[in-house]
Amino acid sequence: MTGRNQNVVSEFLLLGLPIESEHQNLFYVLFLAMYVTTILGNLLIIILICLDPYLHTPMYLFLSNLSFSDLCFSSVTMPKLLQDMQSQDPSISYAGCLTQMYFFLFFADLEDFLLVAMAYDRYVAICFPLHYTTIMGPRLCSFLVVLSWVLTTVPAMLYTLLMARLCFCADNVIPHFFCDMSALLKLSCSDTRVNELVIFVVGGLIIVLPFLLIIMSYARIIFSILKVPSVRGICKAFSTCGSHLTVVSLFYGTIIGLYLCPSANNSTVKETVMAMMYTVVTPMLNPFIYSLRNRDMKGALGRVFCKKKFHFFL
Ligand SMILES: *[C@@H]1O[C@H](CO)[C@@H](O)[C@H](O)[C@H]1NC(C)=O
């Protein structure tokens, strides 16, 4: 590999969203509002869980980690998109592009692993209710969170290092609003077969294994409910698993829609819309899915803010 001197591209141009210029301002306001909602919603969840001792249970500690991951995930792409929509210079440096790609992959995988940890937590809660507190102790919780962080570093690092060995010669226009890995691979003028193989194998493992683990936990949950069918049992399972299942469906629904239903025509538009879906919409909805349906979260909202007001008046 002759490396550096062939690597003539020092910056990339992000083509952004396929929006006509007269609608640019409307979408700018819309995306800004969505981003601010994402930040505030997830921050509120983290603060509530941190301040309210009733929510210091494994489920809510995982949820606050998930909110943190959502917050970071949409901050990897949204500020740059918003800035590019206003400025006339949508360029990003080579290093900036790889950094964005790294953190994008990092937080996407982190969310994936946290969803598995949450499924395991629900599995223990429903199938072993009497041993729940001993099994899901603080040590196991911290271990699962740390394991998620460590496991997610490996593929993100691997993909980014493999991307860094590629050369980019002439074409530096990315038809996307962030440095998407597949868009970058198409631009490269070196051989990308190794990258594609690694993405296929490692990416397959990262998507399929957690998915199977989640399905397995839910299969066990359903099985244990059906063994002693009772209306109360079913309601309880639904109320504790419903939010998690909704988030899991949203997460995997987008992945499946993106990779398993390829469409030949209009693929850039479809890819961009799907990318908007998982970078903006999913992180924004997660806090609402968890808080609106959830009595504990509403209670915590009351406790934390009323207590504050009380202190304030004293
Ligand atoms: C993530 O989970 C760990 C362990 O359960 C907890 O101690 C920590 O406070 C959580 N972090 C965030 C940001 O919520």
From TrEMBL:
Keyword Transferase tagged: no
GO cellular component terms attached to this protein's record: membrane
GO terms, molecular function: G protein-coupled receptor activity; olfactory receptor activity
UniProt keyword terms in alphabetical order: G-protein coupled receptor, Membrane, Olfaction, Receptor, Sensory transduction, Transducer, Transmembrane, Transmembrane helix
Parts forming coiled coils: none
Native organism: Capra hircus
Bilayer-crossing regions: 26-51, 101-120, 140-162, 197-216, 237-260, 272-292
Name of this protein: G-protein coupled receptors family 1 profile domain-containing protein
InterPro entries the record matches: GPCR_Rhodpsn, GPCR_Rhodpsn_7TM, Olfact_rcpt
Subcellular location: Membrane
Stored Gene3D superfamilies: Rhodopsin 7-helix transmembrane proteins (1.20.1070.10)
